Amino acid sequence: MRGTSYIELSRSAAENNFAYLRELVGANTTISHVVKGNAYGHGISTYLPLALELGAKHFSTFDAQEAFLVHRAIEGQGNIMVMGMVEDEELEWAIEHGIEFFVFDQQRLENAIRIAKKLKVKALIHVELETGMNRTGFGKDEFDQVIRLIQANPDALLVKGFCTHYAGAESFANFFRVKTQYQRFKKSVKLFNKSGIESEILHAACSAGAVRFPKSRFDLVRIGIMQYGFWPSTETYIEKIKPKGMDNEDPLRRVISWKSRVMNVKTVKQGEYVGYGMSYLAASEIKVATVPVGYGHGFSRSLSNTGRALVRGNRVSVIGTVNMNLMLLDVTPLDNVEKGDEVVLIGNQGDLSISVSSFGDFSDQLNYELLTRLPRDIPRSVID
Ligand SMILES: *Cc1c(COP(=O)(O)O)cnc(C)c1O
């Protein structure tokens, strides 16, 4: 089975992005490649071997299930860190396999200690500190208890890191909030250090933090979106790249392309409606190409009558409503469109390109959302 559309990952684009990120953060900061959300839709089993090949050594996931998939994909070559959910039943697997994980509540800390003692293997923990995001992380009122638990269990725990997460480093509007978080983080770490609890590393920055708050890079940055060739926000891109000259090019390159093929072509007479309902009326005779990709495949219904695709080197419009499994393109101006012609939904064809963000602007989705909604069952492969 080949599926009705397919995704290609560009090795050279990923290589370019890895090199840019390395130059950005310098030689002494570890880059943890954030691969939650099925590697931002790129596909864990396809992206991970590529990332490894290009030198990635540290990976972050949201949950233990993803960590399991990454563990299988990298076969022991590199560190894995779970930033979010680990069920109590999954802790044993994580500790046994040297999977690092955030701890942000005492219960998880106590469970980790109990299981580590049972297994006689140290749990590798990152103590997450609350600094202002108010999502997860130990608050000041819990520090004493956490310190006591760590001090009492040196055989069960290895404190790999202290960490925190910024509440929106990609937007200037949050500048003071993030700066305050940075200061609180440093203060809180000092409190732990004073009690004799040191960590191997400190980390706080996501992509936007790494770009906009260089001091907050510490020993490791958790880079998600930028490794795939996207900026966390337009604002971050403009601030970083454009001051050097308005015609400066984007140093990042999109890794993902999403393509399909024309399934059917037909002529529609003037005055006829196209597709469900009455959202598109043929004002003159038109030629319509059907593409077997719909909202059920991650092509948002809000792209009805507004989306674009590339066919035979031309930009063409989505007409009518996007169906569950199909969309219709107006290919009237194109000569000889045929069944089987390549249709680019994201990516390049000839001199033209459709970016994820142009797509996102139309459908009011963030890059992050659009990418991670790409279904897992679309076949993915690596190209040069
Ligand atoms: C998703 C996530 C990141 C990566 O964010 P990007 O903006 O994609 O770089 C870093 N840290 C945590 C805790 C995250 O959840």
From TrEMBL:
**Family in the record:** Belongs to the alanine racemase family.
PANTHER family in UniProt: ALANINE RACEMASE, ALANINE RACEMASE, CATABOLIC-RELATED
Domain Alanine racemase C-terminal intervals: 255-383
This protein is called what?
A: Alanine racemase
| Organism domain of life | Bacteria
Q: Which gene encodes it?
A: alr
Taxonomic source organism: Algoriphagus namhaensis
Q: Which Pfam families match?
A: Ala_racemase_C (PF00842), Ala_racemase_N (PF01168)
| Family matches, as InterPro entries | Ala_racemase, Ala_racemase/Decarboxylase_C, Ala_racemase_C, Ala_racemase_N, Ala_racemase_pyridoxalP-BS, PLP-binding_barrel
- Associated pathway: Amino-acid biosynthesis; D-alanine biosynthesis; D-alanine from L-alanine: step 1/1
Q: What does this protein do?
A: Catalyzes the interconversion of L-alanine and D-alanine. May also act on other amino acids.
The root-end lineage is:
Bacteria, Pseudomonadati, Bacteroidota, Cytophagia, Cytophagales
